[in-house]
Amino acid sequence: MNETYHYSKGVLEVAVRNALGLEPWVWLGDVSELSFTLGEDKFSHKESYSGKNAEVREISLGITVEGSATMHTLSTENIARFTDGTATSQASGTVTDESLGTVAAGDVLVLDHFGPSSLVVTDSAGAPVTIAAEHYEYDQFGELTFTTLPTTPAPTMPLKVAYAHAAYKSAVLLNGQRSELALRYKGINLAEGGKPVLVEFYKVSPGLLQTLSLISSGNQLASAPVSFKPLLDASKPATGPLGQYGRIVTIGY
User: Fold this and answer.
1) End-to-end alpha-carbon separation of the chain, Å?
2) pLDDT at 252 over 90
3) Residue 202 class from Cβ within 10 Å (0-12 exposed, 13-18 middle, 19+ buried)?
4) Is residue 192 classed as helix, strand or coil in its secondary structure?
5) Handedness of CA 229, 234, 235, 236 (dihedral sign)
6) Contact (Cβ atoms closer than 8 angstroms) between residue 44 and residue 59
7) Are 29 and 13 in contact (CB under 8 A)?
8) What integer pLDDT is reported at residue 170 of this predicted model?
9) Which residue stretches of the chain are H helix?
């Protein structure tokens, strides 16, 4: 028997399964850990004739496969994918006459868009009066804080704002439908001279993202563990060359 060891790095890809087949494959980015465990639901029967209460049969009720991965590419697309969410993108643009309502000194308001610049605040007078920039401050998160308000004359409410905003992406959490996936791992086995290794699961139910690390300390980047449950793909023949769950292919051995 040849000694074969495994120490692998590689690329994890997923594709959404739909009624027509598979949507395009998507690389999940930096994944530091990927593993699968196989299990079996079973029970045993103990005889009652020898006095030893010995096990004489073991009956299998079915098999289970569980997978897990640790992602470090915390893109809006990855977060949405594993939170039953929706990824959206907004192009840069401009806003005119966004109403701020009735404003008092000390109020902190949130704009409709992020990354504002060239911001101008006016009131609702017949001939709108521009509020001097010394009365407010704003940041890239769209927070607009009125430190003071002019008193002579007092501005006519509601105040309005015009600004340019940056492009941005959003992951809206838990507002979508969970999709079944197909999964491919394309790796190189560094323990065997960099030989390529392919792992495929044809039908996978993704779990929700388990932990989303946001504030980090020490010398480790934030990570997000996710889980997978490979399922039987009945569209493939049970005795076919691909099987109905998945396969591991070692190339060039």
Assistant:
1) 13
2) no
3) buried
4) helix
5) positive
6) yes
7) no
8) 97
9) 76-81
Please give the structure tokens belonging to residue 142: 């769209």
Nearest 5°: the CA angle 24, 188, 209 is 50
> Which domains does the chain show, CATH number per domain?
8-40+56-87+173-250 (2.30.110), 92-166 (no CATH)
Tens digit of each residue's pLDDT (9 = 90 or more) over 195-242: 999 999 999 999 999 998 888 888 888 999 999 999 999 999 999 999
Q: What is the pLDDT of residue 219?
A: 85
CA distances from 33 to 29, 146, 204 (A): 12, 48, 18
- Cα(81)–Cα(23) distance, integer angstroms: 14
In whole angstroms, give the CA distance from residue 171 to residue 74. 11
Share of the chain above pLDDT 70, in %: 100
Give the single-character DSSP code of 137: E
Radius of gyration of the chain (CA): 29
Contact partners, residue 165, CB within 8 Å, separation at least 6 = 92, 93, 94, 95, 111, 113, 114, 115, 116, 117
